[in-house]
UniProtKB/TrEMBL annotation:
Gene Ontology BP terms: Golgi to endosome transport; Golgi to vacuole transport; protein targeting to vacuole
CDD domains per record: Sialidase_non-viral
Ranges of residues in domain Sortilin N-terminal: 3-261
Descriptive protein name: Sortilin N-terminal domain-containing protein
Amino acid sequence: MSSTDIWISNDASTFQKAQLPTQLRHVKVIKIREDSIGRIILLISTEITNEENADPDLSEIFISDSQGLKFSPVEWTPNHQFGNFRLTFPDFLKGTIFGSFHPSIDYSNHQVNYTENIAGGETKISVDNGLTWSNLKVVDEENADSFGCDITRPERCSLQGYFYNLKLSNPSAGIILMTGSVGDDNEFDRKDRKTFISRDGGLTWRVAHNSSGLYATGDLGNIIVYIPSPSYKDGDVQSKLYFSLDQGRTWNQYELADALFYIHPLELINTTPDGSGSKFILSGHLITTASQEGNNTNISYIARSVLYAIDFSAAF
């Protein structure tokens, strides 16, 4: 297979061949984007060509100079066997990048045993456009004993997110919510997911709710709306919505349905794209009963969807 070339244009008319640190063969470009200071970032992954390929799925990040023509590799992890990653660039936090990096998968091993524990993952933050990275530090004395490691040592105990589910809230003044678990970079339990909040742009985190769910912010982070994901264990169905009017420091709850109906939430959004508004929309399905039998979930739906309009305009 011939190598892949990257061509750059600054005027959409003439193109120049980019200088890459290595020839690109058997790769696919996952994403091309520009950072907050005008450099080009290439996310590249090895392409698996057949089932007999014994090489793991490796990934690299290349970043350009200010002209966008010369690229260098980013040393984003000391473990060069990591292969899957996801980067999130919140536009309202200039220079900030969240990265969730996970181990490569050896597809030649057809006897891989997948468990609820995820090994070797790292979730990190950079506040200087990717030049340096640090772990997501958990500062939460109230819940410190509930974690399986010592949160006073963030190099060994930090917030770990999921590369396929790295969620950030609407534009805000540094108020961010994320679903994840606390652990070291060796292993953490995906079943122990909680919702965490940061009020300093992602540098430090604390528990907002002891469950995962849907969330959205308004009034640039002063308003937060949260609804837990239903588990359906022992008939556990969702009927409460939680909201905070002080950046997640205290929470109130609101009963969404009466004794006859419950809601299976699907989407929660702020109606103002820039995050400044105080109105939200929650969509979902109405259900009557739900039960869990082994690995099977039995849900009785009413034949219609439900839409809630939530307005905090008079709250301040």
